[in-house]
Write a structure and sequence with these properties.
By secondary structure, the chain is mainly beta. The protein has two helices and 22 strands. The protein has helices spanning 192-206, 229-242; strands at residues 6-9, 14-17, 21-25, 27-29, 34-42, 45-48, 56-60, 65-73, 78-80, 84-89, 106-109, 114-117, 122-125, 127-129, 135-140, 143-144, 152-155, 164-172, 175-178, 182-187, 211-216, 246-251. Strand 15 (135-140) and strand 16 (143-144) form a beta hairpin. Helix 1 (192-206) packs parallel to helix 2 (229-242).
C-alpha cells in the first residue's frame, strides 16, 4: 500500500528575455521519500534533462520550451506536474527590464493603429514579459472584451461597430501594465473618385470657361477596381450640362 503523491507547488510559466536566469519550482508531499526528474519539450520532442533531479530547475533562457517535473516515490508511483512554458524573447535584451525587476509585466510590443474594411479580419497584437507569464485582457472604448484574453485580438469579420479605441492590460501576481491605446476605424473601402468628383465640381463651378473634361478610370495598376466610375462620369456630365458646360467624357 502507498499513499498518493500530492504536488503542493506547481511550476509556473514565464516570459523572459534571452539570457535571463530563473528557477522553475516543484514541491510534492507523500508518506515516503520522493525523487524529482525534470523534462523539457521543444518542437514536439520531449526529453529528460540530464542531472535535473532537484526540486528547483535552474535555467538560463535560450529558447522557448515546455517543462514538466516527474515525482516518484519508493514504490515506483509517479505523478507529473503541469506543463509550463518558458517563453524566450530572442530580440529583447535584458537592458529593457527595470533595474530591480520583480517579474511585473513589461510591455515589449504595442498594437498599431489600423483602418479595416467592413467584413475583413481585424487583428491586433501585443506582447509582454513577466514572471509569472502575464495574462491578457483587451478593452474597446474602456469596456472589457470578454472573449479577447490572448496576446492577439482577432475578429474574423470586422463591423463598423468594431471601430473604437483599443488597448490591452497585461497582468500577473506582481502587478499590471497597459499597452498604448490605438484607434481602429472600420468602414467601407474608400473610393478616391468620389473625392475627385467633389473637387472637380468645385473647380468647374468657379471656372470662367464652360468646357469640362471628365475622365472615368476603372482599371488601376495598384488599386482595386472602383465601384461605378461610368455612372459617376454620367451623373457629373448631366450636372455640368445643366450649368451650360460643354462636356467631353472619357472612360479608361
Amino acid at each position: 500500500f502507498s499513499a498518493a503523491i500530492v504536488i503542493t507547488e506547481q511550476p509556473v510559466s514565464v516570459s523572459v528575455p534571452v539570457g535571463y536566469s530563473l528557477a522553475l519550482r516543484c514541491r510534492a508531499e507523500a508518506c515516503t521519500s520522493l525523487q524529482y526528474q525534470w523534462f523539457c519539450q521543444h518542437q514536439s520532442v520531449c526529453c529528460q534533462i540530464p542531472g535535473a533531479t532537484e526540486q528547483d530547475l535552474l535555467i538560463t533562457a535560450q529558447q522557448t520550451q515546455l517543462y514538466t517535473c516527474r515525482v516518484n516515490d519508493i514504490y515506483k508511483n509517479a505523478v507529473f506536474s503541469n506543463w509550463v512554458k518558458v517563453e524566450v524573447h530572442q530580440c529583447v535584451g535584458r537592458g529593457l527590464l527595470p533595474q530591480l525587476w520583480r517579474g511585473e509585466p513589461v510591455i515589449i510590443l504595442n498594437p498599431t493603429e489600423q483602418k479595416v474594411e467592413v467584413g475583413k479580419p481585424l487583428q491586433l497584437q501585443c506582447a509582454a514579459m513577466g514572471v509569472p507569464a502575464p495574462s491578457f485582457q483587451w478593452y474597446r472604448n474602456g469596456n472589457v472584451l470578454e472573449h479577447q484574453k490572448k496576446k492577439k485580438l482577432w475578429i474574423n469579420h470586422a463591423k463598423v461597430s468594431d471601430s473604437g479605441t483599443y488597448l490591452c492590460c497585461a497582468s500577473n501576481s506582481h502587478g499590471e501594465h497597459w499597452t498604448n491605446a490605438v484607434d481602429i476605424l472600420v468602414g467601407e473601402q474608400s473610393q478616391p473618385i468620389s473625392g475627385l468628383l467633389q473637387f472637380c465640381c468645385l473647380v468647374f463651378l468657379l471656372a470662367t470657361d464652360k468646357i469640362a473634361l471628365l475622365v472615368g478610370n476603372n482599371h488601376y495598376q495598384h488599386h482595386p477596381n472602383l465601384m461605378a466610375p461610368v455612372t459617376d462620369v454620367f451623373e457629373l456630365s448631366l450636372l455640368l450640362k445643366q450649368l451650360e458646360f460643354q462636356v467631353v467624357s472619357l472612360l479608361d
